[in-house]
Amino acid sequence: MTTRLAVSVRRHEGASVIVLVGELDKLSSPALHDALAAELAAGTSRLILDVSGLRFCDSTGLWTMLDFRRRADAAGGCLRLAGVGGVLERLLTITGLTGALLADSDVPASLRAAVPRSPAPGAD
């Protein structure tokens, strides 16, 4: 049996990148839920979902993303999507949720947006 969704976590200073590859649906969304819940429980509230490898996403997957966006916001952080395209871009457009989930072109752009930088010494 093949894995429908592979979920891996990469930690960066100040944020966690959760990489999704495969199909995110009712059967596989618990894996995403568990990964996001573990990151929040560990104190990481700046979450980036690398969705560039998603081949499919249904409403359950979308609901999981929205739920954890709310949880991250409540913890003083954020949830951003990196690499939105294909089926997920279409789903966000059709549902009118393009503004509800912050999206960036790729992981580096999401990291820049999610992790505040300290001002340079002497800068005002």
| Structural class category | alpha/beta
Helix count equals: 4
Per CATH, the architecture of the domain at 12-96 is 2-Layer Sandwich
| Biggest β-sheet strands, sense, barrel | 5 strands, mixed
Number of strands: 5
Order of helices and strands, N to C? EEHEHEHEH
Quaternary state reads: single chain
Strand content: 25-35%
Provide the spatial order of strands within the biggest beta sheet: 1-2-3-4-5
At the fourth CATH level, what is the homologous superfamily of the domain at 12-96? Answer: STAS domain
Contiguous uncertain segments of 5+ residues:
none
Report Rg. Answer: 15 Å
Report how far the terminal alpha carbons are from each other: 57 Å
What's the short version?
The protein has 124 residues and is of the alpha/beta class. It is built from four helices and five strands, in the order E-E-H-E-H-E-H-E-H.
